[in-house]
Design a protein that fits this description.
GO terms for molecular function: UDP-glucuronate 4-epimerase activity. Its main location: Golgi. This is UDP-glucuronate 4-epimerase. It catalyses: UDP-alpha-D-glucuronate = UDP-alpha-D-galacturonate. The chain has 437 residues and is of the alpha/beta class. The chain is globular and about 70 Å long. It is 42% helix and 13% strand. Strand 2, helix 5 and strand 3 form a beta-alpha-beta unit. The N and C termini lie far apart (75 Å). The protein is built from 13 helices and 13 strands. It has a seven-stranded parallel sheet with strand order 3-2-1-4-5-6-11, sandwiched between helices. Strands 7-10 form a two-stranded parallel ribbon. It has a two-stranded parallel ribbon with strand order 8-13. The structure holds uridine-5'-diphosphate-glucuronic acid.
């Protein structure tokens, strides 16, 4: 050890009592030494903080309360028992049946489509992240319903590529019915990130896995009537312009249609987008107007009814769930195979888009009148100007393409459909006594 070092070692530990050496060399060494000590000290503190954070991290404590951080949730999957359930649920039980991965299976449309597929003997495996955009207990009740008919819902996110790859490893799905999405037009202004997460990143994650699967599945997925945005030509036909979305929700669905084009073009994936028009019915979504109007009419709360400028009517082409389910099954049945394999395109594959609507728009105020009659309660109407929150004034589907190519023929008018909804609602929420989310 050098002399100088031993001298430095003799420095008193109380800095205030230390007399500075004149030599600049000694001065620098001293500063270096004390900075090293400080650095070590702070590194320990920092490491300690990281360890504390790690052990309290969301893996064991998901953050369902914060919707923008839903992606941080982790799910348990894997293992022989889990694989057995996956295989058994996806097992085809009818001659010429198909095996379908249904994403968003605990959702409104997902539950109905899964049940219908299972009923006719197809293999069905559900996937859902059970997020808390609306009351998750409703999703759990739908899950219980599906479980009773033999459909297993894997808990996980479509952004989890490892999980998706595992599912395709366990089952050679012939089809994917992709219904997992962040829905709702107005909520996009509150939580834009969740739309990008589910409707764009999630879609790409799913298509990436589908493109590499061998065999590649055919994919049918939920687009939306909202892609017509500010289009004023009615009824809306698939050939009309869709480049003026009025909400971020609509923009992400439109982006989905363009992304579908790319994966079809490069990888030969068979892709069918279905533009749903305001789907309603039993087991529906509590964020939709017909649902929370029912809840609030029963509670005696006033309901906001939007109207356009100059008392202009706001109307929707409300479409009953059973008609939508028939359209979904027909889209799956007519989807030709994807042509690629192992991520390589072998030839052109179909790329389709269909309107699934009811072809008869109903003003929102008429929807409220029907509900009043069915519930036998007068609504407290609060007529207000259509807020600038992404809503469009009206929707109206031209369904001739779906009629021709899918045999789609909606047969439920709003009065009949709402009657079925109200019957379910009163039963499910115990005559309105149980709280509706
Ligand atoms: O078909 C579609 O493309 C879309 O249909 C619905 O969106 P929307 O038609 O806006 O359905 P609701 O939120 O149930 O609204 C229905 C009607 O009630 C009106 N409304 C809504 C809320 C409210 O407080 N007051 C009110 O008058 C809306 O302006 C709209 O005309 C779904 O929420 C979307 O996920 C779906 O993609």
């Amino acid at each position: 050890m050098s002399k100088q070092m031993s001298h430095l070692d003799d420095i008193p530990s109380t800095p205030g009592k230390f007399k500075m050496e004149k030599s600049p060399f000694v001065h620098n060494r001293l500063r270096w030494h004390s900075s090293l000590a400080k650095l070590t000290f702070w590194s320990f503190i920092f490491l300690g903080l990281i360890l504390i954070f790690f052990f309290r991290s969301p893996s064991s404590n998901p953050l369902p309360q914060d919707p923008s951080r839903r992606s941080l949730r982790t799910y348990n999957w894997g293992g022989p028992a889990w694989e057995k359930r996956v295989r058994s649920s996806a097992c085809v039980r009818s001659h010429n049946g198909i095996s379908v991965l249904v994403t968003g299976a605990a959702g409104f449309v997902g539950t109905h489509v899964s049940a219908a597929l299972k009923r006719r003997g197809d293999g069905v495996l559900g996937l859902d992240n059970f997020n808390d955009y609306y009351d998750p207990s409703l999703k759990r009740a739908r899950q219980a319903l599906l479980e009773r008919s033999g459909v297993f819902i894997v808990e996980g996110d479509i952004n989890d590529s490892a999980l998706l790859r595992k599912l395709f490893e366990v089952v050679a799905f012939t089809h994917v019915m992709h219904l997992a999405a962040q829905a709702g037009v107005r909520y996009a202004m509150e939580n834009p990130g969740s739309y990008v997460h589910s409707n764009i990143a999630g879609l790409v994650s799913l298509l990436e896995v589908c493109k590499s699967a061998n065999p590649q599945p055919a994919i049918v997925w939920a687009s939306s009537s909202s892609v017509y945005g500010l289009n004023t030509k009615v009824p809306f036909s698939e050939k009309d312009r869709t480049d003026q979305p009025a909400s971020l929700y609509a923009a992400t669905k439109k982006a989905g249609e363009e992304i579908a084009h790319t994966y079809n073009h490069i990888y030969g994936l068979s892709l069918t987008g279905l533009r749903f028009f305001t789907v309603y019915g039993p087991w529906g979504r509590p964020d939709m107007a017909y649902f929370f109007f029912t809840r609030d009419i029963l509670k005696g709360k006033s309901i906001p009814i939007f109207e356009a400028a100059n008392h202009g009517t706001v109307a929707r082409d409300f479409t009953y769930i059973d008609d939508i389910v028939k359209g979904c099954l027909a889209a799956l049945d007519t989807a030709e195979k994807s042509t690629g394999s192992g991520g390589k395109k072998k030839g052109p594959a179909p790329l389709r888009v269909y309107n699934l609507g009811n072809t008869s728009p109903v003003p929102v105020s008429d929807l409220v009148s029907i509900l009043e009659r069915l519930l036998k309660v007068n609504a407290k109407r609060d007529i207000m100007k259509l807020p600038r929150n992404g809503d469009v004034q009206f929707t109206h589907a031209n369904i001739s393409l779906a009629q021709r190519e899918l045999g789609y023929k909606p047969s439920t008018d709003l009065q009949t459909g709402l009657k079925k909804f109200v019957r379910w609602y009163l039963g499910y929420y115990n005559g309105g006594k149980k709280a509706a989310g």
